[in-house]
Amino acid sequence: MPTIPVYNQKGEETGKTELPSEIFEVAFSPDLVHQVVVSQMANRRQVSAHTKDRSEVRGGGKKPWRQKGTGRARHGSIRSPLWKGGGVTFGPTKERNFKKIIPKKIKRKALFMVLSQKKKDNELVVLDELKIEKPETKIMKGIIQNLKSKIKNIKTESFLITLPKMDKNIILSTRNIPKIDTIQAKELNCLDILNYKYLMLPKEAVEVIKTTFLKSQ
Questions:
Q1: In angstroms, what CA-CA distances link 99 with 102, 104, 156, 161, 191?
Q2: Ordered DSSP codes for 146-176
Q3: Fewest C-beta atoms under 10 Å: which of 4, 33, 36, 81?
Q4: CA separation for the pair 29, 27 (Å, rounded)
Q5: Does residue 216 surpass a pLDDT of 70?
Q6: What pLDDT shows up at residue 48?
Q7: pTM for this one?
Q8: In terms of DSSP bridges, do strands 3-7 and 13-18 run parallel, antiparallel, or are they unpaired?
Q9: Could you say which of 2.60.40.10, 3.40.50.150, 3.40.50.300, 3.40.1370.10 is the CATH number of the domain covering 3-45+99-214?
């Protein structure tokens, strides 16, 4: 099993811990990870552009003028796309579906690849514990600064903090800090991990990842 240093909230190394090789020693496949990330981005896409076709435009129930004898072109409704204010032909609608289905085994394997790469690139930070007595941004900024100043591999403050369970104090303490976000260990995914430079894991979160993703195979 691979080992990794463990730090406390002051940035001091307190020992080492073993990581499950099934999760943190998986060969990286760019094509597979790209496939999963694209699918996750597509599944999060929100369809906002919507144009009305002739069935949705208001009015136009009456024929504008009689069929023959006026010298003008025949029309049946002012809701026709030919009219100003009429429906739109082939416009974007909310009914579009961008969702992509990826098998669970593929998503899980891609997740293990990304976690393994974070470990390989020294972008994985394991803490003995992460606890804050009260929600305060200043406290969390202090913890990040401690890690940045004492761990030489950390060169930026872009962190995804993985929580073993819901912790309102930590969530509230990080939400006003740029480039820092939180996620529960059981909800880890490739897209969120790759959006941040470093992944911060309390030791308890490692166990949650192991329990959640290895036992579901």
A1: 10, 15, 34, 27, 15
A2: HHHHH-TT--S--EEEEESS--HHHHHHHTT
A3: 81
A4: 7
A5: no
A6: 87
A7: 0.82
A8: antiparallel
A9: 3.40.1370.10
